[in-house]
Design a protein that fits this description.
The chain has about 240 residues and is α+β, with helices and mostly antiparallel strands. Helices cover about 50% and strands about 10% of the residues. The chain is built from nine helices and five strands; from the N terminus they run H-E-E-H-E-H-H-H-H-H-E-E-H-H. The chain has a five-stranded mixed sheet with strand order 1-3-2-4-5, with helices on both faces. Strand 4 and strand 5 form a beta hairpin. The protein is globular and about 45 Å long. The termini are far apart.
Length: about 240
């Protein structure tokens, strides 16, 4: 029986890939580089959006109220989640005393509003309330709104409606056209990017629970925190201990 003919073997070219193929690869690489540049530029634009409200510090550093972070006064820094019940206890205890010290330029207050409880409780109530607080900052009423938010704090997970947040803003002194702008801000949530930035910054700062209070960069002890929640008159001593 005769053997079948061997298959034909095509010779391999020694001239390399054709010019058309090389040109296609070059175009693809250039397009990829262009896409990366565009992504980086777009990412930078998103970061600029996250600059936050009128008194927001850069890089998600929180809202600064008082004579300033570079002023030669004790620097208080509170980390809290709007839905955190113990944050409400702390604010309802010492909020008035802190307000008096800030108004007298005797301390500077920085507030970082975290939103980690939204990851544990259904809804976005922490992020919505934090955005509303930043809206109130734009209207020049951050601290009164912040205090009113905790004074009207619902049970954990209950959250506030937009109407309730706007009502808190009105009670905080926002009125007229400012109130209309505040209402739109609560609904449109333009500060969501900065709210996320505050949470990310708190993570980088190593803050994993709330409330936390730092005085001149030093976290106060649990015993001191318990004392503040029970008796606002201990605030001066706590500040003195860490200043």
């Amino acid at each position: 029986m005769p053997r079948p003919p061997a298959p034909e073997i095509k010779p391999v070219s020694s001239k390399g890939p054709p010019g058309v193929l090389i040109g296609g690869v070059v175009v693809l690489v250039v397009a990829l580089i262009g896409a990366l540049v565009f992504w980086a530029a777009t990412r930078g634009a998103d970061d600029s959006v996250a600059t936050g409200s009128a008194n927001a510090l850069p890089d998600g550093g929180g809202v600064s109220i008082g004579p300033g972070t570079d002023a030669d006064v004790p620097q208080l820094h509170v980390y809290g989640d709007p839905q955190c019940p113990w944050c409400g206890v702390l604010e309802n205890s010492i909020g008035g005393a802190v307000d008096e010290l800030v108004s007298a330029d005797e301390v500077n207050l920085t507030v970082t509003l975290m939103s980690f409880l939204d990851g544990r409780i259904q809804g976005e109530n922490s992020a919505r309330a934090a955005n509303a607080a930043l809206c109130a900052d734009d209207a020049g009423a951050f601290l009164p709104f912040y205090q009113g938010m905790y004074a009207a704090q619902p049970e954990e997970g209950g959250g506030w409606t937009d109407e309730e947040l706007v009502a808190i803003g009105e009670q905080a002194g926002i009125s007229g056209e400012d109130l209309s702008s505040f209402d739109r801000c609560v609904t449109d949530r333009p500060h969501d990017g900065y709210v996320d930035a505050m949470q990310e910054r708190a993570n980088r700062d190593g803050v994993s629970g709330t409330p936390r209070l730092f005085v001149d960069g030093t976290q106060i002890s649990d015993q001191e925190m318990q004392g503040l929640m029970e008796d606002a008159s201990t605030l001066d001593a706590v500040i003195a201990n860490h200043s």
